[in-house]
Amino acid sequence: xxxxxxxxxxxxxxxxxxxxxxxxxxxxxxxxxxxxxxxxxxxxxxxxxxxxxxxxxxxxxxxxxxxxxxxxxxxxxxxxxxxxxxxxxxxxxxxxxxxxxxxxxxxxxxxxxxxxxxxxxxxxxxxxxxxxxxxxxxxxxxxxxxxxxxxxxxxxxxxxxxxxxxxxxxxxxxxxxxxxxxxxxxxxxxxxxxxxxxxxxxxxxxxxxxxxxxxxxxxxxxxxxxxxxxxxxxxxxxxxxxxxxxxxxxxxxxxxxxxxxxxxxxxxxxxxxxxxxxxxxxxxxxxxxxxxxxxxxxxxxxxxxxxxxxxxxxxxxxxxxxxxxxxxxxxxxxxxxxxxxxxxxxxxxxxxxxxxxxxxxxxxxxxxxxxxxxxxxxxxxxxxxxxxxxxxxxxxxxxxxxxxxxxxxxxxxxxxxxxxxxxxxxxxxxxxxxxxxxxxxxxxxxxxxxxxxxxxxxxxxxxxxxxxxxxxxxxxxxxxxxxxxxxxxxxxxxxxxxxxxxxxxxxxxxxxxxxxxxxxxxxxxxxxxxxxxxxxxxxxxxxxxxxxxxxxxxxxxxxxxxxxxxxxxxxxxxxxxxxxxxxxx
Amino acid sequence: xxxxxxxxxxxxxxxxxxxxxxxxxxxxxxxxxxxxxxxxxxxxxxxxxxxxxxxxxxxxxxxxxxxxxxxxxxxxxxxxxxxxxxxxxxxxxxxxxxxxxxxxxxxxxxxxxxxxxxxxxxxxxxxxxxxxxxxxxxxxxxxxxxxxxxxxxxxxxxxxxxxxxxxxxxxxxxxxxxxxxxxxxxxxxxxxxxxxxxxxxxxxxxxxxxxxxxxxxxxxxxxxxxxxxxxxxxxxxxxxxxxxxxxxxxxxxxxxxxxxxxxxxxxxxxxxxxxxxxxxxxxxxxxxxxxxxxxxxxxxxxxxxxxxxxxxxxxxxxxxxxxxxxxxxxxxxxxxxxxxxxxxxxxxxxxxxxxxxxxxxxxxxxxxxxxxxxxxxxxxxxxxxxxx
Lengths: 585, 388
Hints:
The structure holds two protein chains of two kinds.
Chain A lengths: L1 H21 L11 H6 L1 E4 L2 E4 H13 L4 E3 L2 E3 L1 H10 L1 H6 L1 E4 L3 H6 L9 E3 H4 L3 H12 L8 H20 L10 H6 L4 H13 L19 H9 L6 H15 L2 H18 L1 H16 L1 H19 L4 H30 L7 H23 L3 H20 L16 H34 L5 H37 L7 H21 L5 H25 L12 H20 L11
Antiparallel strand pairs in A: 1-2, 3-4, 5-6
Helix pairs in contact in A: 1-17, 3-4, 3-15, 4-13, 8-9, 11-12, 13-14, 14-15, 15-17, 16-17, 16-19, 17-18, 17-19, 18-19, 18-20, 19-20, 20-21, 20-23, 20-24, 21-22, 21-23, 22-23, 23-24
Chain B lengths: L1 H12 L2 H35 L3 E4 L8 E5 L1 H18 L8 H23 L1 E8 L3 E17 L7 E6 L8 E3 L5 E9 L2 E5 L17 E5 L13 E8 L2 E2 L3 E4 L6 E5 L2 E27 L6 E12 L4 E8 L4 E3 L2 E9 L4 E8 L5 H34 L1
Antiparallel strand pairs in B: 1-2, 3-4, 3-19, 4-5, 4-14, 6-7, 7-10, 8-9, 10-11, 10-12, 13-14, 14-15, 15-16, 17-18, 18-19
């Protein structure tokens, strides 16, 4: 008995052990201490972050992945960034630009093939044409652009980002920072320094004693200050050493330069270094990615439990779910601590949070009813939301700074969190209803007690969702009254939230009036998925209103398919059991 | 017979069916209104779908529009009536339903608040440059013909003729002055262009208008477009005409004439509402995150001066922190002129407190309902325990 109990917890513990193992530092790459380099703090996008985050976010935006395959080897984000900064010729040959749009490929005289990745060098001959097309499209509002125009603007923006990165520490065609330092004062140098100061993507020189806290400089600004007669920023020399070492393939010089930089930063801005260290660790562990994998394992184990040794596998699946929830929670809390903000600040974090709340609710349901359905529903909700989050991460830095009107921790913590929990509840009810539908048609026999449990769960969750979405919406109204002078403005996002409230109210009133029973309740709950997905993502696609903070292109079709699938499920839910096998109903 | 009919109507009015149908209609309206915003702009869509009793549509081939759908106001009214009837009929004052009773009363108040907003809210704005003192609000939509007597450099006397008065053919006496304004032509929206060689002569024979060609344009439909309201006018005083002038909100250069030693400047400008107090902008701040152009905060440090009430104080208006004064709320809304001009949105809504009260009621109702349910559950469990 005890042994089997231990066995049921083993998968979860194993999963956690694997997660912990990813936190261990990896070895050096070709002798270069990438790890130390990735931890260096810089100022970019208005906040302090490790170079590793700059590299990952850029690579995600440019290539939709956090690594590059080149010459038979997988380059990590830090190594790629080093190539971009110090070996631009090598970096230009790496296939990092993902291009899917056939018309954009056609613009470059290319056919659509299995290879979707192109190097900067391959794009360079067409760069003028791409820029012309993009500039023309940028004059239109994003909602009015055609698919081709959106794709070309997107490619152009990625090219700009790449170009900025390449010119962040030294100009792309620079002979090296050492020579730049030596040639300070010559007329050509002044010209080059000025363009370097303008192009740089990030600021790597920490403020010196006596300067303001925020006065981080990029290397161009550092060189400019030096040409004005001031002694060069000490970090410039170390950076030059690291760069020259990397370019020449001398790990010792590189490692020494990076170590000096780290020491300097530790003296000048110890908090920035600590912050960058924490974020670096967060990046390396990728808790949301691991959580996603663990949720899939939990789901598979649960499916297996319906076929074999339910007594062992169902608790094992729950232990995996618990491990996934723990990793998810740790990731969420780390983000809150790193950002110093409540959990939901943008579309990406809303996906992470919606999933988290649904998982927690599912865990509670499973502890209450112990039928395995709680695990199934929670694991699928967690997996689905983290996959959505994974795709949203390609829009850029997920810990971006908050625009002025949103910069209010109080309202982010109350209105946004409550509304998002309302989303979670509505989705969870919908997922339970989907489970009900699938079970109804696939399970060999139906145990009425379990059916009753599923209906009770759905009803309870709809009540919960109504409460949270209503309170959240009203809090949003109060925030709007505080900041824009109207309680309710019929803005698309507000309307979306209102639709969820109304729909949940409709479901409950129908139930109370006995207009719907088991099947009807479930079908309505699935329809709630459609409404929630539209309100969550659909309004961003309209591209109007105060809340349209993330305009998405490809997402449109994903959403359309999702809605179609839900409609099919609603029909299935309403059809009698085994309608496809006449005579067996 | 009548009694039975009345009873049945009453039962119907208080029924759940009506609630559900109204809620579903409201959902449909919300979707339609949201989609229509891409075309009509937010205000246009809200007026067409939400603040109307019926949604009208022009059907091809018919000379008049048809009411195709109940509007938000109608559905809202039905919901309120339904809720009220249900409250009276079904939730007789019994302790078990007390929570739900309070929740639904709060909901009625919420609807009332939205009705009050639709009916009474007035949005205006106040644009102030740093160092400037302003004692009037400007309308977003209405225009006026402005007459500024600038004879005394220390004090400008302002007169305004709101646009409803400005019809072609009208002759309007300007109160407090010897002037009468004859309106020759009025355009709600117009396009202005320099007159080309072949164009017919301008109606204006004074000022810059003599060289401008004016073409009538349809009124702005979306929130983003702005009307260029224009008019040809002729000031007359004591039997003397001062010529025909073109005034337009699209023209910046001041045009003036002198009558009996007093200089009057003509302009077409947003309608002004004067206040018994004034606001001076001391400093406007536009903070950004270091190394980006992401705005971090906008704020206006203003001085509020109300001699009638002996008030002289500084106020900082910033994001999520409006100034509430004199039944109005002043919000930081926009900025311009290289961060030296601050634009405050000024909202007067006598019903602004209603949503707050209703939220408090609903929260209280939910709490009460929760406590009652919990209490009942505990008691049931105790009873069960005793029977076992």
